[in-house]
Amino acid sequence: MALNRIVLYYQFAPISDPTAVMLWQRALCEKLGLRGRIIVSKHGINGTVGGEIDAVKQYTKETRQYPGFKGMEFKWSEGGAEDFPRLSVKARDEIVAFGAPDELQVDENGVVGGGVHLKPEEVNKLVEERGDEVVFFDGRNAFEAKIGKFKNAIVPDVRTTHDFIKEIESGKYDDLKDKPVVTYCTGGIRCEILSALMKNRGFKEIYQIDGGIVRYGEKYGDKELWEGSLYVFDKRMHMEFTPDTVTIGKCEQCGAPSNKFENCANEDCRELILLCPECAADDSKRVCPDGCATVAA
Ligand SMILES: [Zn+2]
Ligand SMILES: [Zn+2]
């Protein structure tokens, strides 16, 4: 049986004709029998594809031939084409939907005016040197932080990435404008944009973690500044960096420890809710505690 793999990747690079790049990427994936999701915009590319290992290798090689993608890093993981329902390759206004396609500036070095990149060891060093002054600012959707986050992190009230601009302009975080703020997200892509948007709005000392939580967790697990599980956007739903990860999430129905999200049983909702196995198995509890419970009844 052939070996299969998945790659995850992104690159910020100016793309003058995103539609042409999208068509080239689609043809390339079809030729190689890959499935997955790819988004191309004038700011770059963001994708995850899976397939037979030699086909994926060939894909990375050919993709790097585009001048702006030459230095692109591909993160390899277990899995294959069967982990995706289909191949979806799209040209959009943004590779991550912050609702700021004209604000984000990208040049051959990546995002212009973003936060200072910190390696995992530099994150720890910053905290050693500056102590409690350092603020961790979660760059993900709020629900993701329910099962894991940096200790004492601020989790902004965002349902989707689109809510960030409204949130950072709300005044709620104005006291952070003179503090060292470390933004973080799963793999780093969302903070590339978020850190630039924050700097544009007067946050003076903004950092971002190179490779995001994934790289930090690979280096330090949950022994240092990270606690809990990591929400992931595939069928696993969550992952742990060590066998002794503490379950910090709580079932939204009964409060028991949980790190597994389920879709609300209300067909009009389908929102992700955190449930323990017992409540997840009970149809009357497999719904959002406020609002959807009455629909199910
Ligand atoms: Zn429960
Ligand atoms: Zn619901």
Automatic annotation (TrEMBL):
<dbReference type="InterPro" id="IPR036873">
    <property type="entry name" value="Rhodanese-like_dom_sf"/>
</dbReference>
<dbReference type="GO" id="GO:0016705">
    <property type="term" value="F:oxidoreductase activity, acting on paired donors, with incorporation or reduction of molecular oxygen"/>
</dbReference>
<dbReference type="GO" id="GO:0006400">
    <property type="term" value="P:tRNA modification"/>
</dbReference>
<dbReference type="Pfam" id="PF17773">
    <property type="entry name" value="UPF0176_N"/>
</dbReference>
<dbReference type="GO" id="GO:0016740">
    <property type="term" value="F:transferase activity"/>
</dbReference>
<protein>
    <recommendedName>
        <fullName>tRNA uridine(34) hydroxylase</fullName>
        <ecNumber>1.14.-.-</ecNumber>
    </recommendedName>
</protein>
<keyword id="KW-0560">Oxidoreductase</keyword>
<comment type="similarity">
    <text>Belongs to the TrhO family.</text>
</comment>
<dbReference type="InterPro" id="IPR020936">
    <property type="entry name" value="TrhO"/>
</dbReference>
<dbReference type="InterPro" id="IPR040503">
    <property type="entry name" value="TRHO_N"/>
</dbReference>
<feature type="domain" description="Rhodanese">
    <location>
        <begin position="130"/>
        <end position="225"/>
    </location>
</feature>
<keyword id="KW-0808">Transferase</keyword>
<comment type="function">
    <text>Catalyzes oxygen-dependent 5-hydroxyuridine (ho5U) modification at position 34 in tRNAs.</text>
</comment>
<dbReference type="InterPro" id="IPR022111">
    <property type="entry name" value="Rhodanese_C"/>
</dbReference>
<dbReference type="Pfam" id="PF12368">
    <property type="entry name" value="Rhodanese_C"/>
</dbReference>
<dbReference type="InterPro" id="IPR001763">
    <property type="entry name" value="Rhodanese-like_dom"/>
</dbReference>
<dbReference type="Pfam" id="PF00581">
    <property type="entry name" value="Rhodanese"/>
</dbReference>
<keyword id="KW-0819">tRNA processing</keyword>
